[in-house]
Amino acid sequence: MNSFVIADPSLCIGCRTCEVACAVSHQSAASGTVERDSGLHLAIEEGHLVSKDSYFQPRLKVIVGSKVTTPVLCRQCEDKPCAKACPNNAIVTEDGHVKVYQARCIGCKSCVVACPYGAMAVVVQEVAPAADALFKRPQCKAQALKCDLCRHREAGPACVEVCPTQALRLVTPEGLATINRQKQLASAEAMLAG
User: Fold this and answer.
1) What is the pLDDT of residues 75-101, one digit of tens each?
2) In angstroms, how far is CA 12 from the centroid of its own chain?
3) 185 phi-psi bin (left φ>0, alpha ψ -120 to 50, beta other)
4) Can you give the pTM of this predicted structure?
5) What whole-number distance in Å separates Cα of residue 70 and Cα of residue 12?
6) What's phi and psi for 121, nearest 5 deg?
7) Beta strands 69-72 and 61-64: pairing type?
8) What span, in angstroms and rounded, lies between the C-alpha atoms of 82 and 79?
9) What are phi and psi of 152, to 5 degrees?
């Protein structure tokens, strides 16, 4: 069973700290920092944090509605509808999480359509042409982005670490078994009392 991050909408205040932590943690796997002199160019448009820089891409999205505010991110599904929809087998389970092999991704958006949580995104970035390319103008490369549980960080998911209200938590298979056992005991005790 895969680990996953889950959000408690009753605790989320919509601060978007998780989005920023996610994007920053993926900028440099070694340092976890954005290496840029001019700073980040962020804005909130239609209730969403957006970047004016193509390199700033969180792998989760905070949804702010009239009745709910919560981060939406990959649930690391066991049956992976996104992977089943991918024509290039770019989405696989590896080391207990669902991973996207960017070299295989063609940006077809089949995974975006298939994801029942809306947790997949395809972004297009400009990349430098290969050294042996016939034409030397920049090219576009599509990438499917989703939560990867910050596998590059020993401390685990950056969003869980920075959430000021602890609305996000990492659920492991062991933790899920403990939660299930607690619910079973509470149910049995309620039946006995009632």
Assistant:
1) 999 999 999 999 999 999 998 899 999
2) 16
3) alpha
4) 0.77
5) 6
6) -140, 145
7) antiparallel
8) 9
9) -80, -10
